[in-house]
Write a structure and sequence with these properties.
Structural class: alpha+beta
Helix content: 25-40%
Number of helices: 7
Largest sheet: 9 strands, antiparallel
Radius of gyration: 17 Å
Order of helices and strands: HEEEHEEEHHEEEHHH
Distance between the termini: 14 Å
Number of strands: 9
Strand content: 15-25%
């Protein structure tokens, strides 16, 4: 049975590891407010979304300054994790990786310089063109062109079907495996354990299985 507390604990365990391994600079408190497990935003007066468009530099800065994230990684990139739980089931999630828009001085970040101040040093430079990536589970909105579980990249109209809702450990594994391969290798034993972590059941439809999609083994024994 999936509960607010079990999901909270799973998120907290992943965040704690990232901090201990110096893969994350900061993490926010994991909040539980039925039906949501999310991050504790430091400034709740700031709207979460500036607009409905794909996030840009202004949106990144808004999230970074207001603390609207689960973790800030060592390079200034953000992880956001929100799950919705009802009657012992995950009924929705939003898992996002927002790359830092600039290749900033990592030493400044490691020394504790505020990310917004560091970004200010680079605003006259060309940003690095890296797209945020988001995994959503939204069965209530499922339909043609809108898989219940999907990954969005490059634009809000992009919804690549996924086999099932995504466990937070598997999400962290995906991010580091694909965007920080050298660090993934150093911490391989931690990230590979994600292969047996599941949350929710298969949501991929037969029609979605006939087109390119993301899939993984749902039969691995849980840990």
């Amino acid at each position: 049975m999936t509960t607010l507390r079990t999901v909270r604990d799973d998120i907290r365990n992943v965040l704690d590891y990232l901090v201990q391994a110096e893969l994350a600079l900061f993490t926010n408190e994991v909040s539980m407010s039925d039906p949501l497990v999310s991050f504790h935003t430091q400034n709740k007066e700031v709207p979460f979304l500036l607009n409905r468009a794909h996030p840009g530099i202004d949106q990144y800065l808004s999230w970074a300054e207001s603390g609207a994230y689960s973790a800030m990684l060592f390079d200034g990139s953000l992880l956001q994790a929100t799950y919705q739980i009802s009657d012992g089931l995950v009924v929705g999630h939003r898992l996002a990786y927002i790359p830092c828009p600039y290749d900033v001085d990592l030493d400044l970040l490691a020394e504790g310089a505020p990310i917004v101040d560091v970004i200010d040093l680079y605003l006259d430079d060309m940003p690095v063109l890296r797209s945020p990536i988001r995994f959503d589970y939204d069965p209530d909105a499922a339909g043609i062109g809108h898989p219940a579980t999907h990954m969005t990249v490059n634009g809000t109209s992009c919804r690549i079907a996924c086999i099932a809702p995504l466990h937070i450990h598997r999400f962290a594994d995906f991010v580091f495996r694909n965007f920080y391969a050298e660090f993934w290798l150093v911490h391989q034993s931690f990230f590979e354990a994600a292969s047996s972590r599941h949350i929710g059941t298969k949501s991929l439809t037969s029609s979605e299985s006939r087109i390119p999609h993301f899939s993984w083994d749902l039969n691995a024994a849980p840990v």
